[in-house]
Design goal:
By secondary structure, the protein is an alpha+beta fold. Helix content is about 45%, strand content about 20%. The chain has two domains: about 1-115, Methane Monooxygenase Hydroxylase, Chain G, domain 1 (Up-down Bundle); about 125-365, Alpha-Beta Plaits (2-Layer Sandwich). It has ten helices and eleven strands.
Length: about 375
């Protein structure tokens, strides 16, 4: 009985869509082949920055292929041996082997959601106060701290690029860069699902009458560019303003003008940076943020074109709220896309958002599996 049960289970595992059909390994192998061919082309190293980016991507794709082909081979061998098994002891051993393989696949399954071209890159996070007055500005500062604390928890480096303080409290906006390396993906791969509107419900600390207030803040997540070849910015397309960095209350904190404001004239994008003490470094940071915005804009346009070709609905604007943080009359944080929720709002606001990020990755894998099933 154990032998027959194990055989049925193994056949089911081998054919499971969550194992291989969602993970388009042939497509990744084709990409690796294209990158390898590009690396052998004449003049490849003329643009050293772009060449390093290509080689980094190629190495990542090759590691992914090696891992998943090895798992596929182990599972196939176990299935073939199990087909020949005629005693319970051998079947039990193979059953245990398959269970180990399944567990490793489960642990590595998040790689399915880190296959995007920018997922291993640093991320730029921009947070803007929305509707809600002073409360929304305070909410913006709370979100900034949440992401800073999260980055510290997972070992990412965080640099505050710019912030604009509110007149009475909180922040009108904040921009930071998150970079480093961690198991299972880069900063952008982990954070891109945070892009959207975040909603807070609480008793306002700024209202003399204790009443619930709802505040909104918009979070943008953008990948940093790798080399000027990805985004071309002509000198005539930008306007550079230099001014003195200011601190709390608006007072100037430096005698020299080191803060910069860059306006991209074709799009109207405005990026400021005053965190560094050097004009050159502030300009470099501001340009990185501007390049990230332009790269994201180009990706959004390409995605809209793909959706239009496929006849799918295109949501206008930045999208609706993705998560609600309720502190009154009860305590709950709930993601409206994945339905994942927790009552420990304090831990979430202290940067413990890992389960929300993982739920978003699992949700993405499930969506891809559904699309694959529909195509099949």
């Amino acid at each position: 009985m154990l032998v027959n049960c194990a055989k049925r289970w193994m056949r089911c595992r081998r054919g499971s869509a969550t194992f291989w059909s969602v993970f388009d390994l042939p497509a990744i192998e084709a990409e690796a082949a294209r990158l390898e061919l590009a690396s052998t082309a004449g003049g490849f190293w003329d643009d050293a920055e772009r060449a390093r980016s290509v080689m980094k991507r190629l190495a990542s794709r090759q590691r992914t292929i090696e891992v998943w082909r090895r798992l596929e081979s182990r599972l196939s061998e176990a299935v073939e041996l199990l087909e020949l098994a005629d005693d319970a002891e051998l079947a039990a051993d193979l059953f245990a082997e398959a269970a180990e393989i399944e567990e490793e696949v489960r642990r590595r399954s998040f790689e399915l959601a880190f296959s995007g071209p920018y997922d291993e890159r640093p991320a730029v996070i921009a947070i803007y106060a929305g509707a809600g007055g002073i409360d929304s500005q305070d909410w913006t500062e709370m979100l900034l701290r949440m992401y800073q604390r999260w980055a510290e928890r997972v070992g990412f480096d965080v640099d505050l690029v710019d912030l604009v303080e509110g007149e009475e409290a909180g922040l009108k906006s904040a921009t930071l860069e998150v970079r480093g390396s961690a198991d299972g993906g880069g900063a952008y791969g982990w954070l891109r699902s945070e892009h959207g509107v975040h909603r807070l419900v609480r008793i306002s600390p700024f209202d003399q009458n204790p009443a619930r207030h709802t505040s909104f803040a918009r979070v943008e997540i953008m990948p940093e560019t790798e080399g000027a070849a990805e985004v071309e910015i002509a000198d005539d397309d930008i306007k550079l303003d230099v001014y003195r960095a200011s601190g709390n209350g608006g007072q100037n904190v430096q005698k020299n003008s080191t803060a910069v404001r860059i306006t991209h004239l074709p799009t109207g994008f405005v990026v400021s940076c005053q965190n560094e003490r050097s004009l050159r470094r502030n300009r470099e940071s501001a340009m990185r943020v501007l390049e990230a915005r332009l790269l994201m804009l180009a990706e959004q346009k390409r995605e809209e074109e793909r959706l239009a070709i496929r006849g799918e609905h295109i949501e206008a604007g930045w999208g609706n709220q993705i998560r609600s943080y309720v502190l009154q009359p009860y305590r709950m944080v709930k993601d409206l896309r994945t339905q994942y929720e927790t009552s420990d709002a304090d831990r979430v606001l202290d940067g413990d958002i890992d389960e929300f990020l993982r739920a978003s990755l699992r949700h993405q894998i499930g969506q891809e599996a559904s699309r694959e099933g529909a195509v099949a």
